[in-house]
Write the structure tokens for this entry.
Amino acid sequence: MTLAELLENQFRADIRFRGAAYIEAERVELTRITADHIFAVVRDGVEYQTQLSRDDGNLKTYCTCDQFQKFNVCKHLWAAILAVDEAGYLAGAVKPGYIPPFIIENAPLSFDDEMDDFEFSMPDDFEMGGGRSRKTKSGSSSSQSTAVSSKPRLRDWEARLVELKNEFALTPVLSKTTQQEREIFYEIDVEESLESGQLVVQTSQRQRRANGQWGKLKPLKLKAGQLQEVEHEDDRRILAYLSGGTPERTNWRAQQTETQVAAFRYRIPYELCELILPLMCGTGHVRYLDRQPDDVDSLKWDGEHTWEFCMGVERDRKNSNWKLHGHLKRDDEVPQISSARLIVAGGLVLTNDKITPLEDYDAFPWIKMIQLNETIEVEDGEQQELVDRLLDMPVLPRLELPEELHLEEVSCDPLPELLIHSPQKKRWQQDRLYGEIHFNYLDHLVSGSSTQWAIVDREEKRCILRNREKESKAWTLLQDSGFRRLLDRRIQGRDVEISARDLGGAVRELIKEGWAVRADGKQVHQPANLMFKVQSGIDWFELHADVDFEGQTVRFPELLSALARGDSSIRLDDGSLGILPEEWIEQYGILAGIAVTDEDHLRFAPNQVA
């Protein structure tokens, strides 16, 4: 049974007819063959790429045409199937549920350089990489099939060696004697970098002419998988970082994408800049775009001396006001922001001859404002308010102030606080409760959702810096305890929410970790140990209990009712919340169901004593 005979019932007659026409017109080309995959190109105005793959003895198919995307069958696939049968590329008999391996080469194992039976075809616009090409010609299909079947089958180890040889044969081998001398340049596009907010680099090249002079600088358009064509190892490494990984190649869709992309301009995130720029500068070929290579020296990497972004407030005596200004600082050097040719968020400072790291404190929007000459000025007498408002901003670089405005910077650990808002109704235990988060810095409260950078304490002439690391850990504990963080701040006072039934356990965990917890402005109370009293008569006995929550009380029957419902908290006499221990639910929750409740106690019959 042939492959076509096995699959015939999956293709309509008109599809099979059109597929056979491609074979007759010699429009089918087998381009890559392995033991488990056969790739083919069918020319029908444009090239449609097909793939036949073995998977546990079954056959999976693929084609790039629209028809296949809709119906999973097409005329191009049928043409490829006919081509495989015609060329005799099956290693054994085809059976339902079993497709034998494909034959890599039907020829005795030979390491001669001449391989007349095969034609290697690498179209200019399609890079196969490790594949091989064989054209099928319908005019000689009978004789060709006979010739193929008369050749001996390869043993498994022979087939593997031949496949490896073919892979090596299609890998470009660089020869220093035949290569045309080439230089690769990395050109920084300042305008586009300013526009995009990231470093934009164009790769360009020039080649040595026959007369010994350098040719014009042209873009180096590099396709994925072509790195082996680059002569110098350092350039190959840089270009590999720029282009990233090559596409996965197990189907034709991926291979099409790979061959269509020929990049020569790259937007480089800062994290990659830290890695790649020292390598680039090491080549001696880093320059600004639109400058001739011989006109300027390469930019140098200056990684030992980091710039620092600073801002300051100073008096303008001429205009009787105060101005906010920004500058760079390194040791005794204090250049203006405008002296840099380019500043990249993250940060990098590019001058006419150097690229240097920058500590920008994640405050790049301030740098952009200064670069646009947008100044902030206040009248004399408003300078302290300006400083206070600056310290309220989410992010600031290093702030340099004159002595009269100087504030001492103080660091401390915050005390986290949770304020719970509970509904003032009877059956609130079924609701979801909302809460606010605050952090207490030396008796100064700041909202957990606030973005302000520091807290100004004018009386003590100090600013208290927020400890973002400690705050982040507090948020994590809050969520681990059962609270859900709310990011929509349009409704004031809602930082977190939690089910009322889960409140008790969550609050117990927070208090244990040092949190201050309040509900509706009042302290949340923990209970003392239950103290029981028993009074009895001839045919009854009563159970009394003192239920104390740090000075606040609740009637014993109400407590038992809450425990029976599985509540984890209870409203106390003063309106505050009491947290019910989890073990109380297990120990006492059943009592309310077996006794008669009175105002402040339970009454049991004699038969209930046990």
